[in-house]
Amino acid sequence: xxxxxxxxxxxxxxxxxxxxxxxxxxxxxxxxxxxxxxxxxxxxxxxxxxxxxxxxxxxxxxxxxxxxxxxxxxxxxxxxxxxxxxxxxxxxxxxxxxxxxxxxxxxxxxxxxxxxxxxxxxxxxxxxxxxxxxxxxxxxxxxxxxxxxxxxxxxxxxxxxxxxxxxxxxxxxxxxxxxxxxxxxxxxxxxxxxxxxxxxxxxxxxxxxxxxxxxxxxxxxxxxxxxxxxxxxxxxxxxxxxxxxxxxxxxxxxxxxxxxxxxxxxxxxxxxxxxxxxxxxxxxxxxxxxxxxxxxxxxxxxxxxxxxxxxxxxxxxxxxxxxxxxxxxxxxxxxxxxxxxxxxxxxxxxxxxxxxxxxxxxxxxxxxxxxxxxxx
Length: 376
Description:
This is DUF2066 domain-containing protein. This protein has helices spanning about 5-20, 50-65, 75-80, 110-120, 155-165, 175-180, 185-190, 190-200, 250-270, 290-300, 330-335, 360-365; strands at about 25, 30-35, 40, 90-95, 100-105, 125-130, 130-140, 140-145, 170, 205-215, 220-225, 240-245, 280-285, 305-315, 320-325, 340-345, 370-375. The protein is an alpha+beta fold.
C-alpha cells in the first residue's frame, strides 16, 4: 500500500470516528466497540414525561447493542425491566447537537449483563467483526457504489444503524485502485472473487455485497455477507448469510441489511449461558513480562464467552489458565480468533471432549490450545 493510499484510508477512519466518538476502536482486522452502556436519544423538550420515554428507549438501544438481536426486547425479564428503566440508569444529561436536543443516558453495565445472563440471552462482547460494505444504490435512475465520503441518505442511515446495533462498518474509498478492480456489475452480479480481492486492503473480517433500488413505492434490497477468506477446503466463496426483500424506505432497507448481518454475528460471537459448568484450559507462550500477563488476564476477563479466569501455572515464559465458560470451547476460540493481538499456534480439537470441573482427571489430561500474545 502506498503512502497516499494509507493516508486516504486513515482519513476515512478518522471521519468515521469523529461521527461516533469513542464508539469504535479499529485495529488490524476486528474492532473494539465501546459505549455499550450508553445511548443518545432525540427528544422534543426537557419535559419529564419525554425524559422517561427517552430513558426507556435508551435502555432498549443498549440491550440491543449488547445482545445484537431484536428478539431480546420481547423476553419477559427484559420487558419487566423496561417498565422500570430508570432503576438501571446511572446518569443522564441533555446535549444540543446541530440544533437538535438529545438526552444521553448511561446504564449500569454489570446489572445489564446480569439481566441478560439470567434471561438466558446471548451477550455480545466488545470485540466484534469489522465489516466492509460494498453497496450499489440507485438514485434518480443512476447507479453508484456507495463510498466512504458519500453524504447520501443511505450513508447516513448506515452510520446510524452501525451505532444503534454496535456493528462496526467500513465503506470503500472508491479511489483509483478500487475503481480499477470493482465495477457496479461486480457487486450486482455477485462476482465474489473480484470483490474479495479488492476488500483485502481494508483488513475487514467480512464484506457485504448489497443493492438498494426503488421499485414503485417501495425499495428492493439484496444483501450477502461473506468472510474475508475462503473456508478450509472450499474453492469458492459461500455467503455466511443472505437476505432480500422490500422496504418502505431507504432507511428501512438499511435497517434490514444491518440487522441481517448483526443476527449472523450474534449466532457466531454472542454467547448465552449454557447453564452447565463448562471449563477448559488455554496456554499463552513467550510471556516474558508481568505487563503481558496482566494484559492477557484483563483481555480474558472481558470476553463474553468466559465466566471465570485463574492462572493455573507459570513455567518459564509459558502461562496456563483455567477458564470457566458460558458456552463451549468452540465459542471461545471463534471469539478469540477475531482479536489481532492474538495468534493461535496450536491446533487442538474440542471434539469428543468431556467437560469436567477443574482438578478432575479428565480436565487435567485434556489438550490445551496454545496462543501467542502479540499485544497492542
